[in-house]
Queue: 2 jobs
Job 1
Amino acid sequence: MAETSARTNMLVHEAVICSLSLEEVGQQEAAEAGLKAALDCQAKLRDVLPALSGSDFSRMTREEIASITPNLFDLARRLLSFARSREELTARMPEPFRGAYGAVLSDLEISASRIEDAAEGWALALDSEFVNEVQEAIDSTWA
């Protein structure tokens, strides 16, 4: 399970680093650079999202979950902040790039919402009281 955790952690870290480059997009004058940064981040998220939903994390340790969860929240916050400035950012793009840029930003916002949902779910796994309540409910159902 440590291998799955390490791979997921690496993918999340790469996506966080990529999201940092998006913050510079607003300061860049080259439309191509802004679009490239958004597309690079979108590509990283195509690896992160399946890693979050496609593996069995039920055997992950509390420490493994705790090491990834804050990064998920940070990634979601950065992406949502960037994507929500879509109209302003798209308006600054030259006409040939507007459609593509708007589509990428929309996709980033959807991905950010999915990552935020995953982070909230993982955070619940760190809530001992919640985990005990769920375990008690499961135990009483099968008793």
Job 2
Amino acid sequence: MYNPIAPGDSISSTWGNAVEKALGYGTPAQAYNYVMWKDAGIYYARNGLTGERTENASFKILMNDKILELYGSTGLGTGGSIYLYPGAYYVDGSINMRPAVHIFGSARNGYDTDLTKLSCQINATTDTSIFKFDFPDAGKSYHTGLHFMTLNGANLATTNPCIDIVCGTQNAADIMLFDLGPINAKYGIRVSNTHASNSIWNVFIKRCFIESNTYNGILVDSSTDQNIFQCRFLENHFYGNNTTGGNGAIEIDGHETRGGIISNNTFELENVNGIYLADEADGWVIANNVIIDAGQKTTNTYSGISLNDVDLCSVTGNVSIYRANNKMKYGYYADNNCTYLAVLGNVFKGQTAGAVFGTGTGNIGDATMNVSTT
């Protein structure tokens, strides 16, 4: 960094250009491959090695150009990192992520309207995803990520997510989404695979605030039964998603979505189910989550945790209750098609019943092994 900056310091919108004037054009002074900022409606990118500066009136064009440069036009680049100074950025189409490229914002803003205090927010201006992981080249894994920024669909991304991870002509692995704020889109984050032979694995979502999306906060969808496995969703907060559709703030749906972890997340005032697994989404660990007042959309209809035709899951140490109202039907629900579930040491409280444990084969856990109350 050019100068040490403490959280809360005020930074003018022309700070990047002021540094340019102090150091001189072309001065290499950054640890990142590129640093970017906005000044007077123009977006700038400075090369951290050579100091060369480029500019464009379109943030999308400038970002895609630098990402492709780091990746290499034939996929032979070494990858690298891009840092975004504090401020509000606007995109009129998707930023296309590529393998081995990481994007760092200055900080997720948490709805802070003052974007001069180390906050970074990227806003959609059209109905497109903000970032898209779309796997253009066969044989390339991703090993890439987004960090420390708010992604605002601005209620314009009505059919798209803030972040779209789609398996196409290659496998996708080790995608890291840390400290983000995907808000105000159809989906916060969507992970989907319809490819006949390739897989998505190790999508790692941590410490994100995922709020006010009209469908799911996180949707993992294998609609044609293709592999999506070993995903990790840890320490995130969910609030007010699913106002229009979808089955849960986290929804895992499909035969080959298996072997993941949903742990240490918090859910507050979700409109439908907090956590929803269906259609043989097997082998998940659901542990140490706190779900309060799910089911706000319709009284006595939804559950904190809802499992439907899934097997081989561990559900331990969760608290799923209503507190401010009594709209949530069950703290926990498992249908009779669920088998080999271990449901132990949870606290469930619902309007109709604390929990429905199901009668599937091989299940362990009932009202004597959990707190289940109305």
